[in-house]
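User: Second chain of the day. Same drill as before.
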Amino acid sequence: MSKHPELIVMLTHNDRTVPNAYEIFDACKDTKAKYWGFKEVGIPLDEMKRLCAYMKSCGKTTFLEVVAYTEAECLEGAKMAVECGFDCLMGTIFFDSILAYCQAHHLRYMPFVGKITGRPSVLEGTVEGMIEEANRLIAKGAYGIDLLGYRYTGDAVDLNKRFVAGVSAPVCLAGSVSSYQRLDEVKDAGSWAFTIGGAFFENKFDGTFAEQVDKVVDYMAR
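Assistant: Same format as last time:
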């Protein structure tokens, strides 16, 4: 495992895959980011398959993040991830049926914790409750946890630090990492990974998409 949080580049904006995701990845495939992903909505399934296959052919580790709240929708997302050949399913509300499906298909599963609503998502709950929930899911067999830290209605910095310290598995801090201050906070929390999508599309790190990706990778490695 890396000594610093790893960037997962999400080709998404407002929790949806952007229509030109394939073209953006093609222009960025030689950047320093090793981890790439997108959401379960925004482009047709055949395009999702083509993009995931292209990412993997370029040596990338791939992530599908599913923002869904019913067991049927979450299981549909897991099936999409398997059909497309993703390495890891992120998101979904945890259900035993999804864990069993992921295990049967050798797909890493990093579910959400806490109370999540809306799209873009909002996170509610107590820090202690989320840590307890996370450790329970990991004990069941989840690979890690997808924490919507900066979507939290409480103190996000406090949540992120305490959660990473209290959970004995990979934690991805997902959503709304949109400034160098937040990159410093992510470093300080010491999570395994974090996602950036919308901030790159909004040019929060100043440059072309590819330039921003490399800036963030270099910044985190310092």
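The longest helix spans residues 71-84.

User: Great, on to the next one.
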